[in-house]
Amino acid sequence: MSRGAETKQQTARRFVGRLSLVIAFFALSATALVARAVHLQVFNTDFLNQQADTRHLRTEKITAHRGSITDRNGEPLAISTPVDSVWANPQELAAAVDRVPELARVLELDPDQLMRRITRSMDKEFLYLKRHLSPDQARQVLELHLPGVNGLREYRRYYPAGEVAGHLVGFTSVDDDGQEGLELAFNHWLAGESGSKRVLKDRLGRAVENVASIKPPREGRDLRSSIDLRLQYLAYRTLKGAIQEHKAESGSIVILDITSGEVLAMVNQPSYNPNDRSQYLAERYRNRAITDIFEPGSSIKPLIVAAALESGRYRASSIVDTSPGYVVVGPKKIEDHSDLGRISLTTVLARSSNVGITKIAMSLEPDQLWQTMTRFGLGALTSSGFPGESAGLLTHYNDWRQISQATLGYGYGVSVTPLQLTQAYAALGNGGMIRPISLVALDQPNKGERIIGSENALAIRAMMEEVVRPGGTGKEAGVAGYRIAGKTGTSWKFAPGGYSEDKYFSIFAGLAPASDPRLAAVVIIDEPTGDLYYGGDVAAPVFGDVMAESLRLLAIPPDALPGAGHDGVIQAMSQ
Question: Out of 80, 252, 298, 491, which one is annotated catalytic?
Fold first, then answer.
């Protein structure tokens, strides 16, 4: 064999060997791959599924819908509207850090601040970028297809009545939790319970499929409040006009349904708009009608007369000698504007005699006077359940000095809230029965408690009618076609070192219609300026305007039409 032939044979054998080696290598590789595939897909499926779930399955919150708040007639006071919030996984978003300025532009945020927020949260997997966006703005963000950026459906509270009902309704936090007002008081009722679901997401973090419902959400329940929005608007408009006219510091109006104890209207000035979070300042959103206290001045005198009649020492026809126009108690001289002489209890109220009421208060046993004031609700919380409610101040009679009992007669040394005073007057209008206060509409009135006799309550109502008639201090509270019973009050404001000589509370409290009272209302004007500051000049006209429209809106028939006088009632009481 030649050398050339031998070389060719060696070359062929080497080629066959190499080919066999390559074929064996590929065969072994294929076998290994098949074995690996069988191992992964048959024997190690749990591991693969776990890895897949870790990368693509997410648990998302299903936000529950908060219940609505309406007035007693179904008009909305607080509703929840769907909004979208945008959140991100900072660890994933870091992969597209160069696009953060683009994201900031769509979110209308400062790029540097957004970058700092992301970098400070690299150890977290959840970061809100911006909450409560409009659906269109949220869509623009998600269309950027940034890794780790996702949307979340939430709800934002909206208050259709705005500042008209702001103090009463309150507001919620950005997380939809009640913070003030009815939103806080009934948060357990209004707030639902969020659910959760498992979703499948693609590599860009977009949800492509709802895999399973883990926990369905429980929606919040609606709340039907006792408020009549028509009366609320009316009281708001009238009070605001009075505050502006008299350049007063603040003011409040409360209207109660005497037959049920329901609050039909409750407004304060200055007010705030709960739709504007920049106005969430304590001095603006506190409900003065429930949280603020004041000395009621002469508006407490009907309650003192009630204590006198209940004591058995006085009758409706009793006479009080106010001569010589003043009375001295300890170091204090208490005076009337003039010497009224011997006057009836009716005149004591109609002419607001401080001397007469002081003599009455001083003639009563301290414990009996204190117990009557307590039964009227002074010095105790009402049953409203409103957050931050004040109990007022009524010192126990064991701590009274002689001057304490004297000044209590005309409303000093005792403090009440507008709501407390309204409840006390409602009891006079309800025949001596006091009913629990309710901010929720009632199907049936709560059971009342008798605190004074019905005959005494009727007698005091007749006396208070004289306050509103010509010659009385509250004549400006009159309403054409209706009998009105009420009482004026003017009290000095307390200041460091004593009482201010130029700052007042102007007050009017009353009932309508007096023949069969349906509404009790209290008007408080804080620090009116100018020449007018007496309750009869400042607060009484507001009461009259509000009552005139309220009685018409509620279709309460007139009780003082021509020829239907009520002199006979007063004459009967004096016999």
Answer: 298
